[in-house]
Design brief:
By secondary structure, this protein is of the alpha/beta class. The chain has helices spanning 33-38, 60-73, 87-96, 111-125, 162-177, and strands spanning 49-54, 77-82, 104-106, 138-143, 180-186. The protein has a five-stranded parallel sheet with strand order 1-5-4-2-3, with helices on both faces.
């Protein structure tokens, strides 16, 4: 389903006659109260892609690891992909934070490979229920946007448009397969988004 494109042949129709896919009729709470409140208090809608940014050391990664742990605790699947820190550093942080449920940790640079893994997890969890009885949702947390590669260049090179293409690939997965993604990005000293 192409949610990010217009509906063909939708002319002069009343919006009230449009049927909404059942996947979009639900929301998913992360289980972290401060975050759930910040995004409206009702949870995240499958197909959404969010962006968290801030200066280095602000706690973006720490907060996202706590959210990933809470998502797993609720019976959903969360992939935490980090190119910023090694898996050993992530494990040390989870121990320091005393996280109890964990999450799937990856260090994938290529966006297409990361999305393929998320699709595989969606297929494996199709029909399964989370602890609250709702369908298992696959979440993806990317830490962080500026180190991902969209694969446009065979030699692995990046340019100023790479982050835009990465976001486009991730958003297409979210919209076509009802995934939920949270992406982290740094802010430079000038206050601009890095990448």
């Amino acid at each position: 389903m192409q949610l990010n494109s217009g509906i063909k042949n939708w002319h002069n129709e009343n919006i009230l006659s449009l049927d909404i896919p059942k996947e979009l009729e639900r929301t998913v709470l992360t289980g972290v109260d401060w975050f759930d409140e910040a995004v409206g208090g009702v949870g995240l809608t499958p197909s959404m892609c969010g962006f968290l940014t801030g200066s280095p050391g602000a706690g973006k990664s720490t907060g996202m690891m706590q959210i990933a742990d809470a998502i797993t605790a609720r019976g959903h699947v969360c992939v935490y992909n980090s190119q910023e820190e090694s898996l050993y550093q992530i494990r040390k942080t989870t121990r320091r934070l005393q996280l109890k449920s964990g999450f799937i940790a990856m260090q994938e640079e290529m966006t297409s490979d990361l999305i393929s893994h998320c699709k595989k997890l969606q297929k494996e969890n199709k029909g399964k229920k989370a602890k609250d009885g709702t369908p298992v949702q696959v979440f993806l947390i990317i830490d962080s946007l500026q180190v991902m590669n969209d694969g446009k260049y065979s030699d692995g090179a990046r340019n100023s448009r790479t982050p835009i293409r990465v976001v486009d690939q991730v958003m297409n997965w979210c919209k076509e397969h009802f995934g939920i993604c949270l992406m982290i990005s740094q802010v430079t000293k000038d206050g601009k988004i890095s990448g």
